[in-house]
Specification:
There is one protein chain. The protein is of the alpha/beta class. Helices cover about 35% and strands about 20% of the residues. The protein has helices at about 60, 85-95, 125, 140, 145-155, 195-210, 215-225, 240, 255-280, 295-310, 350-355, 365-380, 400-410, and strands at about 1-5, 20, 25-30, 40-45, 65-70, 95-100, 105-110, 115, 135-140, 160-165, 170-175, 180, 320-325, 330-335, 340-345, 385-390. Strand 14 (about 330-335) and strand 15 (about 340-345) form a beta hairpin. It starts with a strand and ends in a 5-residue tail after the last helix.
Amino acid sequence: MFAGPEADLAVFEGSELYAIRSNETLTFEHSYAWWGHSRKLRVTANPNITISRAHVPLKCQLARVVLLGPLTLHDVDAASFMRYAGFWDRLLNRNQLIGLMAQGFQRDLGSAGEVLPLPAPSKQLLDGLGPRVSLFLSDVETDTWSQQQLEAVAGACERTIITLGEKGALLVPRSAAKPQHIPVVKVPQAVDTNGAGDTFATAFMIALMRGDANPGHTAAWAASRAVMQPQTCKPRCAPRLITAAPGGLAPLSEAERVRIALRPLLQALAAAAEPVVQPLAARRTFVAAVECKQLSRKESTRKRHLRIRKKLNGTPERPRLAVHKSNQHIYAQVIDDAAGRTLVAASTLTAEVKGSVDGNGANITAAEAVGKKVAELCAEKQISKVCFDRGGFAYHGRIEALADAAREAGLQF
């Protein structure tokens, strides 16, 4: 962590702490609305230094699990933890597990230090993704993303875990497997909910490292126990809490610690031997069975969309009007694919549209309001013609209503 001369580090007593001295300590000011639930953040002190892998002691670089928790857009270089320094670094760390709690990468700072949300995945977030990464976000960050953006992020890391507040969490694997819902574990009374998300992520990564068959359930249990305790225990209490979960993991023995420490080296040696062993094993194989997999509705929609996108491309003269719908909302973006940027966007989460439909974004009226709004925004930017991308969905219901409303408002396609 960065620590200025005024930093009080007493709270870290009992932990091994490496402090990078700077002129200031990153400091947030929290303020709440009168009803107590709407929190606003403002950065009052910023060291303007970015932590990279080079700042981390060697023994921590070789850790089986690395958990990164950036608080702002520029205070951690997550991409540096994905790069190897040489042969031995690659050999020892090729199977290192990296957890990225990326809420901070979706925060920008205003002129007065106020924290502002970003509507799309930031460059820092995208650069920090990779096949060893487990990404942790909340629905606050992802609700404004398009389906294409969400799929691109989920496909760039091993797994994506999106917390949904009282609804639990959603685990989206990198493969085409169906997302897994992680239910909330109810508690009799919460003492302090601050740090529950950090405890969840820490417990998830530890359970994953230890080969837990259901790390999401173990992490949810640990987070539920954490909110019943003061904030000072979080997230360092996670290793103790996961051993108390029903059917949870046993405390680590010395033999288990050695096995976990040696696992990356053994896996690296096995991977190096695979090119030699595989041809020998292939000679003994006579029959290959091909499993026919029936696609889910979501996978079928995605395949249809890929077929459409092969023939449909937005240009500066006629950008692409991309539409996506979920069970609760509908989204529309006008995209210049040549420049790779979004020109106009509207959804049922847009304040003006949300107010006109009384917060119900899952009906025909809401779709029409979004279509009308996106056409008005296009007119403001002198965009009169677009090509329509239905996102792999059938052209009826809300998709058709949005398209008709956009045409009636003057958009040509």
